[in-house]
Structure formats: structure tokens, C-alpha cells
Amino acid sequence: MRRLQLPQWLARWWSHRRHGPDADDDLDREIHTHLELEAEEQREAGLRPDEARTAALRAFGNPTAIKETARDLRSRLWLDHLIQDCRFAVRQMLRAPGFAAAAALTLALGIGANTAVFSVINGYTRPLPVPDPDRIVVIASTRPDDETGIRFKFSFPAIQDYRAQTTVFSDVFGFDLRLDGLSVEGKTSQFLHEAVTGNFFSALGLTPVAGRFFHPGEGETPNAERLIVLGHAFWQRRFAADPAIIGSTVRLNGHPTRIIGVAPEGFHGLMEGAEADGYTPIGLERPDEPRPGQFTTNRAIRGLTMVARLRPHVTLAEAQAEVDVVARGLAERYPETDRDTTARVMPEPLARPMPIPFLTNLLPLIQTLLLILTSMVLLIACMNVANLLLVRASVRQSEMAVRAALGAGRRRLVRLMLVESCSLAALGAGLGLLLGKIVSVAFANSIDIGSDLPVSLHFQFDWRVFTFTLTIALATGVIVGVLPALRASRAEVTDLLHDGGRGGSAGAGRQRIRSILVVSQVAGSVALLVVAGLVVRSLREAQRVDLGFDPDHVLTLRLDTSHSGYDAVRSRAFYDELLRRIQAWPGIECASTSFTVPLGYLVGGAAAHPEGQAGVRDNATSVGYNSVTPEYFRTLRIPILRGRGFTDRDAEDTTRVAVINQTLAARFWPDQDPLGKRIEIPNAPGAPWEVVGVVRDSKYLAVFEWPLPHFYVPQSQDPSELRAFAVRSDLPFADLGLRIRREIEALAPDLPIADLRSLRDVVSSNFGFVLFRVGVWQATAMGLIGLILAIVGVYGVVSYGTMQRSREIGIRMALGAIPADVRLLVLRQGASLVIGGIITGLIVTVTFAGTLRRVLVSVSSLDPLTFAVVTLFVSATALAACYIPARRAMRMDPASVLRRE
Amino acid sequence: MPFDRPQPLLPGTLDLLIFRTLVFGPIHGHGIAKHIQRTSQDVLQVEHGSLYPALQRLERKGWIASKWEANARGRELKFYRLTRAGRRQLVVEESRWATVVRAMRRMVRTV
């Protein structure tokens, strides 16, 4: 029978642990006999017995130190020592639980904040759950007349051209995010899905968990077979992960559609932040198409985000070069649709959530900012704990001196201190992980994108987060411990032993280091608070920014009659009736329906140009667009500057009319009267639209957008099945919402109601704004943590300094200093640290404030108010922190202090 | 100079001194210390204590072996003796020392 073998080093260590004491005894005995022999010899040489013994000892040296060295030599003692040190560290913590708790909590704050922020960023930037995700690129269309970059999509024929004419990609595919209604056994709900080209799944390299995916080329013709692949989460939620539903038929927008497969778990679609409930072929007939059946054939319909998989070893630059060639070729061959169109290739993670420059540029900036903020918090926390340890190290001077005298080497002392600080850091990291987890869950829940749409934000703790935390915890332990350790070990034994008990004038150098630490802490907190303040103020300003409409006291909700398969006539009758009923209720100021509400996530856009100028301007300008009922402008309080708004007399059969905003007027008819002019919209065939009014500019896509051209047409002349209700009323929204809900259920029981909320909520939570809210949330938290840390730091140093000077203070009082003098003495010490810190902090912040400019809205990066408030706030709190030790010093009884010495 | 003042040991020479002492046969720690002092005419001062870690190290390397035995006066003492590997090591150490001495002689000349 074989015996279980221990690894060699473990076996040796174990045997040492068992035989160690024996070896010690052996050495003891040897040393003892040695001393006896030596003493005997000395006696024979004529010394008295006691003199002989002393002489023997003198010749021998320090027996304890010798034994230590011998024992160190004997085996792999480092492990033994490590365990000893860890045990000691735990004992130390238990002996001073207050200190340990303070230090661990401080570190937990720093580590937790970093973990939370990292896990959020990690969640947002994690690679797609597909094979070789780094090979996936997004190709965005850019056009000179498109300022926002929002027309980044391509037509399906263009995608086919890119696929055929390039060699750098192994596959080129496309998708389009769509919102429809899905009915299962008579119950309709919203269905957010991606319409995808046939090769979507094969190009990504995914395999279905059940059923099958689309084949390359499948469903790319008009009126293709109606098929659905379900998303994993939706499959679990709606069908309880039942594999038997494969092959069964549901209704998509009222039309029978067959389920053929289920996507793998963890794949949420290609639109970051949105959870795709399913996937459909791009050839599916859709209810609201202006040109039915042309989605897959018409070059002018650009509805697909183009995605491609790079062949192995192809670089981005090579891909870009080839794409440039194709784009030029297409522009020449199809001047009507593709002139001036270029294409930009970018790695998929840089195109999240959409390849729109203002979003993709802003996100990394905000992420960097957050990382910098949290590293600053961690740094400040480290300084704080280093400070505490330094203070403690000086309290433990005598202990260290005794250890050194007993023969502990310098390295051993340093290691002891490092093990202690690393244990603290480990404790802090454990707490920090917990804290980070709680915070990031709370954070994920606090994100409100202003919609009922399925959102997927992935902040789980994965191995990357864990490694990150572990690394910073270790680094923290070393950073925090190394300074006190070196100081403690460098100390001269004799100095310490002479000085240790009293703590009078000793350690001017140590006091200086602590002072520097506190100054940098205060400086860091000032910088942190200023940045936080600027971001918070920026958001406040953004909310106060003139939106161009009044979002208060307006309730909105969204309906889509096409989800339940209504035809145009029935849909219109339903909306008219519902609007009529709501308007008739008492307490309703006015109500309207429109295609979209501003700053929501649904945006209407159309290519348009002044009548007769199609030849002059080759490409129609991309213009924001909304289809509204007459009361819309009154409900949103958008002022009509010239002409008129819409009335009930603008009907299907009367002249087509439009209301434009100031920017569009200036863009289309500079220095001319726009009233009576007409707009052509190539995608909406028929007569041009006559301008009857001009309204004020407002915000449409995002709070921080520049003025965009926009126009409105009446719902009566351009009806939509998807409509947003806006109801202006002073009634409580909860009641009002319930009443509207009941009314809709009475009229159309199977119609899903989406996004029932106040317009104020919509405005403050839409996609662009969420980034700001995330930033503010985090910046505020960081600032507060920084402030707490600074206060603790100042308090700690000043009260320790006061304690050290207690004898001096006692003498002063005995010599006739009055309490007020003492208070001044202590406060002066604290104040000089605080002022030094604030000045340093302000200098640092001003130096680096320029980098903030890009994320701030309507607030200067040197905003005097923020700087002033932070300065006052930090000085006041820090001085308050000094006041406590000052009071304690004032009340000191000089007699007892002096006697204690 | 009429006599040499006591000198601290050069680092690294203790091993060689121990080896040289053990060449004459098994001997205990105290004896080694005394022998070094005596044969160097008290010039080389060994702090007796520092001998023991060195002995332990050499024993761990297998160059010397030890055993508790009674001496002539009947006292139990730990005797050290050179092993076969130790004898080989002695040659190595001696030749290294000779190299150092030659080099030093070339560098330092008595005036």
C-alpha cells in the first residue's frame, strides 16, 4: 500500500515543526556546556567564580540572538515566521480593535469604491460573449451633412456590396433594433428585438441552445417567411425555458410567426445596454413601413448597423483602407444615395451603445474620470492608514526596541510590520468587496433609463474584478506598511529605549512625515470635492438648461397599436377617441399625442430639403421630425414665434402643412421669410409640406446637443401607429396614471402600455443623461468619502500631536498660560496643516481642471462658486476636527500631566 | 610592531578555520573556539557564540557531523567531526583562500 506523500517542502516544514523544540534544547545544552567550560578555564586562570561567569558570557556574545540566528538557519523558517507574524498581526488587531476597525474601514472605503467603479466599467467594456470578440468591428457611415453622426446605418444592398467587395472581413452582417408587439395566447407585450441578416449568428460564431438559427441568406427577401429566434432571458421569462415551444407559432404585430430557436445564455444582442428579447429576419413585413417590401432592396433605406468580423491578422488600418476604396466606388456608382458617404471602421467596444461620436467620445472620458476619482480616494485612504500606522509605530517604539535588542533583524521587523499592514489591507479588501458589491447592485438599480424596455447592465463580480481588488489590496498593504516599517526598523535601539517611555520631544522627523501626509490628504480631498462639485453643478445647470419646453406637470405614456395588429383606420379612431375622453376630464389642462416626446430614446428623423432645391443640394439634410396633434405645442409649452400651429382644420385632404423650428428656418431659408415656403421629404412621397409656423428651438436628442434643425407635421396628415401621449395636469400623477390606464384597458384591453411616467423623469433619465447621473452619483460619493477621510486624518494627527506635547502644554499652563492660549496653540498646529492642504489642493485642481472641460455643461472648469464652497467647507470641517483635541488640551490638569512624567 | 592587535574575523573565513581545526580529529565547540584563538596567537578573535550558527550551517550542508559524547573528564559534550564531503570542501575553501591571499599580496605591499 502506498502512503500518502506530502510535498517535500511541506514535509520538511512539518518535521521541523515537530523537531524544532528538540533542536532548540540541543543547542541550549551545547551553549550551556560551552559557558561552563569557559568559566572553568577562566577560574583556572585565577578569576573569582562570578567574574569567570561574566567573562565567559562576554566572550560568547548574546546567547538569545545566537539561538535566533541558529534557528533561522535551521529550516525554511520564512513560512513559520509568516504564520507567526500573521498570528501576531491578528493578536495586535484584537488588542487594539478600535484602531484595526478604523484602518480596515478606511481601506474598505477606498477598495470598495474602486471595486464598484471597476466592476461597472468592466461590465460596460467586457468583450462580447462570442469566439474571438476582438475581431468584431462596427462600420459606421459618416456624411458631411449629418452633424450628429446619428445616421450611421447602411442599407442592406450596401452591406451586400461591402461583403462582396472586401477581402479583409470573413463576414459582413447587419442588425436593426426594433420594438414590436408579441402576442402569446392572446396576451400582447412589448418585444424588443434585433432584425438581423441571415449570417448574423454564423458570423458571430454562436450556436443555439435549442432549435436552430437563421442560415446565411435566409429571410433577406421581401415578405420572407416569418421566423423568430428567442433571446435566452426572454425564453426563460416568458416560456419558462420550455424547449417544446420550438416550432410553435406566436403573433408578431398580429401576424403568425414561428419560433425556430433560442440564443445562448449571456448573449444579449449587439446593442449594449439593451436586452434583445429575440431576433427576426430583416425581410419581415412591418406595419409602419413607408415603402413596404423595400427594406432589403432600396438603397435609400438605411436601416442596418453594419458589423463585420476581421480575418485573422488583418489590422484595423488595413480594413479601413479597403473600406475606403469600397465607399468611394459606391459613391461613384450610386451618387443619388451614396454620394459623400464615407465609412469608419472601429472596434466593437468603441461603438457602444451606438457608433455616435458624442456618445462614444464621452463614455471613455467619464470612465477615466471615475477611475481617477476612485484612485484618489484609495490613495487618500492609504495615506490615512499609513498615518495611523505611523502614529501607532511611535506608540510601539519600545516594543520594536525590545525586539531589536532581543535579536530580531531589521528585515524581520520590516516583515512583521508589512504582514500587519497586509492583514489590515486583506480585512479592508474583504469588507471592500462586500461594500463594492452592495454599492454596485444599488447603483445598477438606481440607473433609470426612463423606459420599460428590457435593459441589461452587467455588473457581476467576475474574476477580473476579483483580481483587480486583490491586486490593489496587496499594493495597499505594502504602500501603507512600508513607510512605518522602515521607520520603526531604522530606529536605533538605544535611542528608542531611552526615549520610548516618554514621547517628549522625540521624532520631529516623524511628525514632519505625518504632517506631509495630512497636507496631501486635505489636498486630495479638496481636489476630489472640487471635481465632484463641478460635476454635480454641471448636472444641475444641465437640468436648468433651457430645454425649450416645460417638462413639469406633464405625464407621458407610449402606445403602439400595430403591436396588436390594428390597421391604420382603427388605430386612428382609437387614438382620437382616447384623446377626446382624456381631454374632457376635469383638471386636465391639455393633452396631445405625437410620434415621440423630446429627450426620450425614440427619435424621428427624415431627410428633407427646401422645395425645388434637390438639384442644388445633392443630399437631403437629415432633419429631426415629429408628427403631432394640434395641442402638442400648448401641452409642452413650446412657444410659436411666427405664423400658427396646427388646428383641427388641417386634415387628410387639406394642404399638407409643417411647423419648423428657428434653426431649420435659418438653415433652409437664410434671410428669407419661411412662411409659405415648402419642404420636400423624399422618403414620404406626395405633395411638399407648406410651412405655416415657426416655433422656438428646443432640445430633442440630448441635453447637451447644439441647436438642431427640426420640423413638425400634423398627425392627421402623417399618422403613426406608435404614439406618445402627453397630458398636462396638476392632478397627482399616480391617480391620473391609474385613470388613464383604466380608460385604455376599457377601450383596448390587449394593448400594452409602455413608459407611463412624468416628462420630467423622461428628461432626467434618458440615455445621454444617465451618463451624467452616473457621474454625479459617483463623484458625490467619492467627494464625501474623501472629506470623511480628511477629517479623520486631521483629527488623528492633531490629537496625537497634542498628546505628544502634553508635557509642554502642562508646563505652559503651570507657568500661567490660560486655556485660550492652549487652544490657540493646538488650533494653530491644525490650521497650518489644513491651510497648507487646501492651498496645495487648489493648485493641483486648477492645474488639471482643463481636462474636465469636455464633460462639463454650462459650468466653467474654474467655477468660482464651487471652489469657494469647497474651500470653506473643508476649512470649517477640518478646523472643527482640530477643535476637539484643542478642547481636550484646554481642560488638561497641568499637575497630573507633569506628575505622570 | 612588537605584537599584533586582536583582529575581528574577515567575513567568510570562519568556515575555513573550523575545517582546519576539525582536520585534527573530532572536537567540541568550545575546543574549536580555543584552538582558533590559540593557533592564531590570539590575533583572530572569534565571538564564541557566532561559532554555533556556523556549525549548524555546515552540518546542514553535510560537511560536518556531530555526536554527544563524554570527554576524558566524563562530561557530555557535542563533538564535531569532518565528513568525507567536508574534506573535499576543505580543499575548495583552501584554494579559494590561497587565491585571495595571492591577490591581496599583489595589491598590498609592505613599505
Number of helices of chain B: 4
Poorly predicted ranges of chain A: 496-506, 615-619
Cα distance spanning the termini of chain B = 14 Å
Strand content of chain B: 15-25%
End-to-end CA span of chain A = 71 Å
Rg result of chain A: 37 Å
Mean pLDDT of chain B, as a whole number? 80
Rg from Cα of chain B: 16 Å
> Main sheet of chain B: which strands, in order across?
2-5-4
Silhouette of chain A = elongated
Q: State the helicity of chain B in percent bands.
A: 40-55%
Q: Of all protein chain pairs, which has the greatest interface, and how many residues does each chain bring to it?
A: A-B, 21 and 18 residues
User: Helical segment tally of chain A?
Assistant: 26
Amount of beta strand of chain A? 5-15%
Largest sheet of chain A, if any?
6 strands, mixed, barrel
Helix content percent band of chain A = 40-55%
Q: How many β strands of chain B by DSSP?
A: 5
Mean pLDDT value of chain A? 80
What can be said about the biggest beta sheet of chain B? 3 strands, antiparallel
Strand runs of chain A, count: 21
Q: Provide the low-confidence segments of chain B as ranges.
A: none
Question: Can you lay out the helices and strands and say which pair or pack?
Answer:
The complex is a heterodimer of chains A (901) and B (111).
Chain A: H1 8-44, H2 49-60, H3 63-74, H4 77-95, H5 97-125, E1 136-142, H6 156-165, E2 169-184, E3 187-196, H7 200-204, E4 210-211, E5 227-230, H8 232-239, E6 249-252, E7 255-262, E8 278-281, E9 305-310, H9 316-333, H10 335-338, E10 342-347, H11 357-395, H12 397-405, H13 410-446, H14 463-490, H15 493-499, H16 508-544, E11 554-560, H17 568-584, E12 588-594, E13 605-610, E14 621-628, H18 632-635, E15 640-643, E16 657-661, H19 662-668, E17 678-680, E18 689-695, E19 710-714, E20 722-729, H20 733-747, E21 754-758, H21 759-765, H22 767-804, H23 806-814, H24 819-848, H25 864-890, H26 894-900
Parallel strand pairs in A: 3-8, 5-7, 14-19, 16-18
Antiparallel strand pairs in A: 1-9, 1-10, 2-3, 2-6, 2-9, 4-7, 5-8, 6-7, 11-20, 11-21, 12-20, 13-14, 13-17, 15-18, 16-19, 17-18
Helix pairs in contact in A: 1-2, 1-3, 4-5, 4-13, 5-11, 5-13, 5-14, 5-22, 6-9, 11-14, 11-16, 11-22, 12-15, 13-14, 16-22, 16-24, 16-25, 17-20, 22-24, 22-25, 23-26, 24-25
Chain B: E1 7-8, H1 14-22, E2 27-28, H2 29-39, E3 44-45, H3 48-60, E4 64-70, E5 76-82, H4 84-107
Parallel strand pairs in B: 1-3
Antiparallel strand pairs in B: 2-5, 4-5
